[in-house]
Amino acid sequence: MALDMNKLHDFLMKFVGDLGATGTAGMVVIGDKLGLYKALAAGPTTSADLAKKTSTDERYVREWLASQAAAGYITYDANSNKFSLNDEQAFALTSDACPANIAGAFELALGSLAAVPRITDAFRTGAGMGWHEHDERVFHGCEKFFRAGYAANLVSNWIPALDGVKQKLEAGARVADAGCGHGASTILMAQAYPKSKFFGFDYHDGSIAAARESAKRAGVADRVTFEVSRGKEMPGGDYDFIAMFDCLHDMGDPAGAAGRVRKALKPDGTWMIVEPFANDELKDNLNPVGRVYYSFSTLLCTPCSRSQEVGLCLGAQAGEKRIRDVVTSAGFSHFRRATETPFNLIYEARP
Ligand SMILES: C[S@@+](CC[C@H](N)C(=O)[O-])C[C@H]1O[C@@H](n2cnc3c(N)ncnc32)[C@H](O)[C@@H]1O
């Protein structure tokens, strides 16, 4: 074997970066939970002051600060021996306005990784693993991470990108949110469009229970109901608008779900499908966003679909062509990409 030492060095440095990033997942979840970032955002501080402010142990905090400074998540000034957050770090790590909730994403990652032994086994047996079988951190982290993206985009960009939907929602419409998880998207829409009625569905009873509590806390329980249901068995009908956020590809039978949506929509209704950003060809997804999605797809999305009937396993990087095929197979005559972000594709389908 004639090793190119420069190439080997580059590869090993890549590995060191990834190993450090794996540890960063835990560091960020700790920092968020203990309020360390929020306290740091108030101004430069020593480890002793930060520990005092957050009622934590100084020795642990000192080690955490060093790890976070080495990762570039916080800033260290050697002259004053103080740690701080610059404006960008503070925005990304502490502001609700940031479109990506970093702590939520890492919580989701840590929860997903707990499934590694079972998924390793599934590689041998081909068995599935339902969404509901994952660690609690998957549900909580997913809600926290996704809600930030929806808060930044859903009402301001995605709904206005659909033909005539914003006007209907403002006037008062019947809306279903299928595969709603903890209901972050349902509640955001209910807050923005108080004249409309919202029905959230998910097959996971634990998520539906959490969604009901969130709706009460948000003060929208009068116009939102949550029920346990699979996508292809969604109850009710005459919906003006049906939304699916990051869940069509998780379903075992997405074409069956599409067929149910087709029947449950009014003839002039709209189906919005939010899916992870992906190109049609694998070679075009071999980038940092594709890397994130393919990994989570291996641990969460593909096994979830495999665990259900049909088990189509679209995966989180299905791309527009495969989603179009699923939607049009159910008799939808109109399908288009309405808008996109670096993380999401937003499709509009009509009967
Ligand atoms: C990645 S999560 C997204 C949750 C939520 N839509 C959001 O954006 O926060 C995928 C969701 O799809 C749900 N799901 C999977 N298969 C389903 C099915 N066949 N019918 C309904 N929900 C399903 C899971 O329980 C999970 O809540």
SSE order and pairing:
Layout: H1 5-33, H2 36-41, H3 47-54, H4 58-71, E1 75-77, E2 82-84, H5 87-94, H6 102-113, H7 116-125, H8 136-158, H9 165-171, E3 174-178, H10 184-192, E4 197-202, H11 205-218, E5 224-228, E6 239-245, H12 254-264, E7 265-276, H13 288-306, H14 319-329, E8 334-340, E9 344-350
Parallel strand pairs: 3-4, 3-6, 4-5, 6-7
Antiparallel strand pairs: 1-2, 7-9, 8-9
Bound molecules: S-adenosylmethionine (SAM).
In short, what is this structure?
The chain is α/β, with parallel strands linked by helices. The chain has helices at 5-33, 36-41, 47-54, 58-71, 87-94, 102-113, 116-125, 136-158, 165-171, 184-192, 205-218, 254-264, 288-306, 319-329, and strands spanning 75-77, 82-84, 174-178, 197-202, 224-228, 239-245, 265-276, 334-340, 344-350. Helix 12 links the parallel strand 6 (239-245) and strand 7 (265-276).
